[in-house]
Amino acid sequence: MTALHPPSPSSPSPASPAERAGTGLGPLNQFVVDLFGVMAYGELSAFERLSSDARFSPTLRDRAALGRLAVTEFEHFEMVSAHLAGLGVDVEEAMRPFQASIDSFHERTRPADWYESLMKAYVIDAISGDFYTALAEHLDDDTREIIARIQSTAEQGGLLQPRLKSALSDDPRLASRLALWGRRLVGEALTQAQRVGIERQFLGGLLFKGSSADHERQTAQLFAQLTRNHSRRMSSLGLTA
Predict the structure, then answer these.
(1) Which residue windows does the record flag with biased composition (Pro residues) (predicted)?
(2) CB 41 within 8 A of CB 102
């Protein structure tokens, strides 16, 4: 699971897919459509990226492992697509507003080698999962269920963490390089996630209750928790976040 990347806040906010489709959904459901649009394109991009990265695996076992993860990402994409179809929204329409931003994120965080690809998959999938789960707590039962289903089938951490730990234990210089890479990745990911609140102006009102100051405080708490979770995952690899 990946992608926390809405369009740049400097560009005009496009009409939501729900609005363009004329579904008559209320503001909450229009936000949910945007949320699933981000998720769908993130999963599709992850499938493409992992499929490509698998070719550069040092062993056939590694190639098979990344291939299996790519298949899982595509299954997630299909799950989100089916959920959007149930809302009467075409998945391509839902994804389109976020395509340029997600593609730009991947260009800015292009891995230098196979090990950086592993770290990117490990970091971005975990942060995205934490972010979507946190959002789902404030949303409807159907949204929580589909996010929980995707989380329950996620295999990235279980497969990538042991492989990364094995590689890092054999190469101190690689450990230093991947620690720096992990810090860059988390910074990019959290910056993109924060843009959700800027681009979709109604986001704070949907997720949080209380005054504007309360929104800012709770948003800060959310991102602090995402950062703490990332730090724990880096520590489990023997790295400093």
Answers:
(1) 1-15
(2) yes
As a whole number of Å, the CA-based R_g of the chain is 18
Nearest alpha-carbon partner for 28 in 200, 212, 237: 200
Lookup result for tokens 């998959």:
121
Q: Side chain identity at 164, as an amino acid letter?
A: L
Low-confidence ranges of the chain (pLDDT < 70): 1-28, 152-157, 196-215
Angle at 16 between CA 11 and CA 19, to 5 degrees: 135
Spatial CB neighbours of 63, under 8 Å, sequence gap ≥ 6: 54, 55, 57
User: Is 53:114 a contact under the CB 8 Å cutoff?
Assistant: yes
Going from the C-alpha of 230 to that of each of 120, 127, 166, 169, 190, the distances in angstroms are 12, 7, 19, 20, 11
Task: Encode 64-92: b = buried (16+ Cβ within 10 Å), e = exposed.
Answer: ebbbebbebbbebbebbbebbeebebebe
In DSSP notation, 36-105 reads HHHHHHHHHHHHHHHHHHGGG-SSHHHHHHHHHHHHHHHHHHHHHHHHHHHTT--HHHHHHHHHHHHHHH
Q: Give the 3-state secondary structure percentages of the chain, helix then strand then coil, rounded to 5.
A: 80, 0, 20
Q: What's the DSSP call for residue 140?
A: -
| Neighbouring residues of 203: CB distance < 8 A, sequence distance ≥ 6 | 31, 196, 197
Query: What amino acid is encoded at 43 in this protein?
Result: E
